[in-house]
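A.,

Following up on our hallway conversation. Structure tokens first:
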């Protein structure tokens, strides 16, 4: 899915059968079934690493305007995406393929991510079809005849900006940690004064520390909000961090915590290394 020269029905089908063999299809009769080579399919569910965008308003011209606006935003942000259209349909469809980092979220988190992403990328006050954020929701299969219009879903253009793979860090962070923080806040309300005082001191320390200083002290390479994880054989800057939240997580080895936890783990790791050198 990362080579614009092979975007065909066969390429999409083969990609799905290799990487997402349990994806659901529809031939107009048998709905939500896994692939059957003896049937001709017209619709499919969304892939876990895909975002689909469509505007289904009654004003067709406005739908096209919204798609154009969204496409410009996607291009400016460096995404690769395809635009399809079925003759007689209300709106073109945008497919963003190959967002592999989406697969680090569970299915409900992926739906939440898509909804939040559409609100940032689509025109203000527009109404994208949020049903497509649910990957179980079926949509017309690329290059196949649409069951309603009996016309093929044709590729208008494939805007190639390179491999996608990564997703919006801020949205992902919000999904993973906002609810957790709310739960911790509720828990803190039940703590006694002594425990609350300890938490307050810890939060004050966190607010006055920055990850970059810690990384520089321990000679850990970083770029932007990603760093090379020191807790496994990392080559791809898998550790994400946020000074605003005081939290970090490695998407490679799943180590995580706040900045104090990071310092503690680094000190323990350094001590083990020094003890090993003495032997």
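Then the amino acids I'd put at each of the 279 positions:
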């Amino acid at each position: 899915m990362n080579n614009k020269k092979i975007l065909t029905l066969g390429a999409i089908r083969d990609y799905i059968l290799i990487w997402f063999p349990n994806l659901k299809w529809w031939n107009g009769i048998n709905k939500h079934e896994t692939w059957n080579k003896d049937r001709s399919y017209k619709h499919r569910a969304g892939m876990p690493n895909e975002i689909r965008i469509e505007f289904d308003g009654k004003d067709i011209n406005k739908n096209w305007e919204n798609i154009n606006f969204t496409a410009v935003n996607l291009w400016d942000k460096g995404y690769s995406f395809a635009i399809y259209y079925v003759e007689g349909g209300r709106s073109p469809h945008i497919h963003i393929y190959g967002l592999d980092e989406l697969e680090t979220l569970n299915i409900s988190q992926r739906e939440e991510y898509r909804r939040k992403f559409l609100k940032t990328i689509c025109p203000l006050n527009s109404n994208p079809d949020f049903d497509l954020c649910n990957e179980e929701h079926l949509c017309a299969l690329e290059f196949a005849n649409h069951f309603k219009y009996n016309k093929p879903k044709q590729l208008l253009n494939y805007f190639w900006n390179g491999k996608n793979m990564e997703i919006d860090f801020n949205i992902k962070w919000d999904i993973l940690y906002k609810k957790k923080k709310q739960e911790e806040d509720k828990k803190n309300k039940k703590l006694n004064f002594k425990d609350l005082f300890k938490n307050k001191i810890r939060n004050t320390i966190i607010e006055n520390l920055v990850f970059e200083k810690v990384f520089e002290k321990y000679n850990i390479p970083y770029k932007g909000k990603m760093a090379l994880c020191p807790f496994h054989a990392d080559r791809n800057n898998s550790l994400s961090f946020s000074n605003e939240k005081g939290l970090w997580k490695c998407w490679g080895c799943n180590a995580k915590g706040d900045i104090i936890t990071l310092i503690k783990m680094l000190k323990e790791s350094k001590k083990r290394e020094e003890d090993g050198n003495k032997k």
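The chain has seven helices and twelve strands. Curious whether your intuition agrees with the design.

B.
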